[in-house]
Sequence to fold (101 residues):
Amino acid sequence: MAKTANVYARMEPELKEQAEHILNAIGLAPSSAITMFYKQVILQQGLPFEAKLNYRQPLAVDTMTKSELDAELQKGYQSVLSGNVKPAEEVFESLRQEFDL
Fold:
């Protein structure tokens, strides 16, 4: 039998419970899931998913209240007034590069 090492991690009990419920539903033991994660870290030479700050889920206008929409429009307006803008060509080029278009 192969030698093993222990990994200890602290997390919120609810997070652990929810994740283990899903893992059990797909027939995967938590230790196997952690092993898979570690193997992917090695293969990817980093996290096997993108980790970045300030990601915001795109807003769906049809689900917003009038006051939420007004607040978002005001944020955009203030951003323009403060000079926090980029030329459209630059934005579209960065989108093309990000999505290989």
About this structure: DSSP finds four helices and no strands in the chain. Residues 66-81 form the longest helix (16 residues).
